[in-house]
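Figure 3 (text version): structure tokens given as input.
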């Protein structure tokens, strides 16, 4: 589904993309002569499911990074850890976590979801956060 969405700009439900998946996985061989055709069918896919599949793929290929860290419990605490030094990146989502994690007084846990340019950029962000003195856990 994701490959068809990204490369061909087609929305196809899971069952309709099975033929392409079988070809890509080598489970079906293309015809030795002539053209191999795969029928794509079924655009009846829930928008929420489509978004979930796309987000999971972005995370798997490094274009979306989710990390947990601890910061000073002040409005600018999370902003300093991901935006103050290169490679700067504005978080797509910030979630404060104050329960079920080991925190010091005046400290809050923060789960950051960041959109990146790829795996190298994600690694550079983590390196910059570590260099800034933050503990970083990939989520």
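Below: residues designed for each position.
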């Amino acid at each position: 589904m994701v490959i068809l969405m990204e490369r061909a700009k087609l929305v196809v439900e899971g069952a309709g993309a099975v033929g392409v998946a079988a070809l890509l996985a080598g489970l079906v061989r293309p015809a030795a002569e002539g053209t191999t055709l795969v029928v794509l069918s079924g655009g009846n896919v829930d928008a929420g499911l489509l978004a979930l599949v796309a987000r999971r793929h972005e995370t798997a290929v490094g274009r979306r990074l989710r990390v947990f860290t601890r910061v000073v419990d002040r409005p600018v605490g999370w902003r300093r850890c991901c935006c103050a030094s290169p490679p700067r990146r504005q978080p797509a989502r910030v979630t404060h976590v104050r329960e079920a994690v080991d925190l010091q007084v005046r400290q809050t846990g923060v789960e950051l979801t960041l959109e990146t340019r790829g795996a190298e950029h994600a690694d550079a962000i983590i390196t910059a956060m570590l260099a800034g003195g933050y503990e970083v856990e990939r989520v």
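Strands lie at 64-72, 91-97, 107-115, 137-138.
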